[in-house]
Structure formats: C-alpha cells, structure tokens
Amino acid sequence: MYSMKLCTVALVSLVIGNISASNVHGSTSSTLRMRIEPQALTTSLAQTAKFALLVHGCSEDEHNLTITWDVEDVIEVSPSSITVTGCNDKNISVEVSASQQGRFIIRPIIISSAPFTDNGRLFVQLKVAKYRPLIIISMLIGWTYTVCWTIGDYFQAWTSYRRKSVVGLSFDFLYLNIVGNCCYATFNVVLFASEYIEEEYFRRHPFGLNPVVANDVGYAVHAVFGNLVLITQCYIYQSGGNVVSTAVKLLISGYVVMVSVFFTLTIQHQMHWLDFLYILSYVKLSTNLIKYIPQVLMNYQRKSTEGFAISNRLLDMAGGLLSLMQMVLNGWNYDDWQSIVGAPVKFGLGFVSIFFDIIFMVQHYVCYNNRKGEQKAS
C-alpha cells in the first residue's frame, strides 16, 4: 500500500513535468541556432576524439560566422578557427586531443554578423585518460557490478519459491527497500524524461550534463520490479506470522507524509521540481542506511539465516567492491580524485552496504552455520 502511494506520486510528477516541458519548449525560435554533438567525449593521451558543431536555422541574409576555441594550453583543437559564410546548414567535424590527463571544458568563441541564440549549452566535456585499455576495463567493471546488483533479488525469489516459504526473510527490510527504490526510480525517470526539469538542472550546473542515462532508468525500474516480486511472495507463501513492524509502518507513513507535503509545495510553485527530486533521493539515502538492520536483528533472534539467500548478499558485496574499485581506477586513470572526494555520499553508501554484507556473511558462515540446511531448501 505504501509503495503504491509513492509510485502514484512518481507518475503524477512525471506527467506534470512533461506538460510543463511542452509548454516551455513549444515556442522556441531563433534566427541562427548552433549545437554540439556529442557533449561528452572520452579519450586518452596521444589519441584524438571528434565532435560535430552544427550550424542551422539561419536567416536568408548573408552572414559571416567565425569560431575559435576557449581551451587550456594542454588541449589542441583542429581546426583551431572556423569561418562560415552564407546561409547553408553546416555540420563541422572537429578533432580534439590532449597532452595531459584530466577533465576539461571546451567552449567555442563565436563572432557572428547575424543574431544567434546561445542557450549556454555550447560546450564539450572532455575526459582524458592516461591509458586507453583502462577505459575498457572500467566499462567492463561497470557492467559486471550492474549485473551483480540486478540479478541478486532473483536468488532470493528462487529460494522462497523452492521452500514455498518466506520464513526468515524480514518484511521490514523488503518494504524499506521498495520505498527507497520507488523514490530512486522516480528520480531517474523524471530527470531523464522531462526536458523542463533537465533545464532546471542545467541552470544550476551550467557545464554539467544530465547525470541520468537510459541504463540508470532501466536499472532503477527493474529494482522496483524485483522488490515487487519478493513482496508478492510474502502474501503467497508461508510467512510464519512475519509482518511489517509497527515502527517501520510509522517510518514509512512519515516518508509518505513528507513526500506528499513537498509534492504539494512543488505543484503550488513553492519549490522547484528539481528540489522535489532531491527530496526523493534523500529518502533513498536514508532507507539505504537502515534497511538492513531489521534483517540482521531477525537473523540474530532466530539464530539462523535459513530462508535468507546469502547468495544475494554475496552478489551485492561483489557489486559494491567492484563499484568502489571502478571509482578508484577512474580517479587514477583520469587524475580526477575530486570525483571521489566530491561524492562522499556515494562512496560512503558503498561502504555501508559492504559492512552489512560482511555481517550477514559472519552470521551465515560463522555464527549460525546452516549451509547444509539452506542448500536442501534451495
């Protein structure tokens, strides 16, 4: 019930965001328009990367357009100067290379005899790695930990299915998890799909790109689906009297009230949609910090981990370690340790998850060693 309320809030906010976006963007017009594709490039030392500068939508009058580049000394752009005459649409290919690893912003300096619209998005984010093979290794690590986190719930679902029982699985853990994942999915879907909210983000981060990509949306929505499968099993199979505790019911009710209040303030234009999404992300953060505690306590009280699929936690720990490894690897390869220092919450949550995974493993393999019993059940 509580998860459905949050999902309803997510749907309403998405619809309103899209309606607002259509109202804002429907009247855009200009004499001369320019854009850069793609806006994010990754390369390595002594390697070149390419992007396209597209010029179109000009008036019928003759005009001259001169473009140079605002870059650091370690960046080389070719051609270094571009002159466009006449009124034909142009698709100009530009090559860029760097003699130093790091993150850089490339911006055009434009001198035009015709008026043009600059929406502040004419730039390229360039990431330069020290070693190109490490870029590929980092990508493989990313896909691997995504798979680990994605399939974990299915091991728990299979364990419950084979046992025809959810005894040993904390309902508090499941409900806190789905509340957090619904908020996380809403954040990703809305920021990815709504141009209106995306523009809010760009106004606050002039040289930033949308932090949500299609993979993030798919992962978040799938996480909600996996949680729903596990919760459905709780009402199908034997539960042994297991229910959601009063404390967790009150906590989830508090989340619903808080989100509803901020949602109301948002639709009344008392706060920005982006801030509302950040509120949802804080809910996700808080549930991640506490959701494992009920399962740890249940294992302790039962002196057993039977019914709780330890394989799920093994995959979660593998994913967490790989995620941290990727952050460190990228920090060294791109000489960008700020990406770790600047994201202490993400880094800290990784350690929190691993900390609880270790507790579960100690409970399962040391304190309440029932591996044979679980193998028979699964």
From TrEMBL:
Top-rank taxon, per record: Eukaryota
This protein's name: Cystinosin homolog
Annotated signal peptide: 1-21
InterPro entries from the UniProt entry: LC_transporter (IPR005282), PQ-loop_rpt (IPR006603)
Keywords: Lysosome, Membrane, Repeat, Signal, Symport, Transmembrane, Transmembrane helix, Transport
Signal as UniProt keyword: yes
Subcellular location: Lysosome membrane
Membrane topology listed for this record: Multi-pass membrane protein
Pfam families: PQ-loop (PF04193)
Catalysed reactions, as listed in the record: L-cystine(out) + H(+)(out) = L-cystine(in) + H(+)(in)
Chief place of localization: membrane
GO cellular component: lysosomal membrane
Membrane-spanning segments: 131-152, 173-197, 248-267, 347-368
One example GO MF annotation: symporter activity
Family label: Belongs to the cystinosin family.
Methyltransferase among keywords: no
